[in-house]
Amino acid sequence: MPENIVELFFSRQQAHADKPALVWNDEVVCTFGELPSHVGRYRAALAQLGVARGDRVMIKTESSPAFVFTYLAVLAAGAIFVPTNAAYTAAEAALLIEDADPVLLIHSEKTAVPPIGSDLVARATLNPDGGGSLTELAGTLNPDLGIEEMATDDLAAILFTSGTTGRPKGAMLTHGNLGSNVSALHQAWHFSSEDVILHSLPLFHAHGLFVALHLGLYSAATLRMLARFDAAKVIAGLSHASVFMGVPTFYSRLLENPGFGRDACSGIRLFISGSAPLLPSVFGAFEERTGHRILERYGMTETVMITSNPYEQAGRIAGTVGYPLPGVNVRIVSADRAELPVGEIGEIEMAGPNLCAGYWRRVSATAESFYPDGFFRTGDTGFKDDSGRITIAGRSKDLIISGGYNVYPAEIEMLLAQVDGVQDVAVFGVPHPDFGEAVMAAVTTDRDKFDPQVMQTLISDKLAKFKQPKAVHVLDEFPRNAMGKILKNELREAYRNSFVQ
Ligand code: MLC
Ligand code: AMP
Question: Which of 201, 233, 247, 439 to mutate to test the pocket of ligand 1 (most atoms within 8 A of CB)?
Answer without folding.
Answer: 247
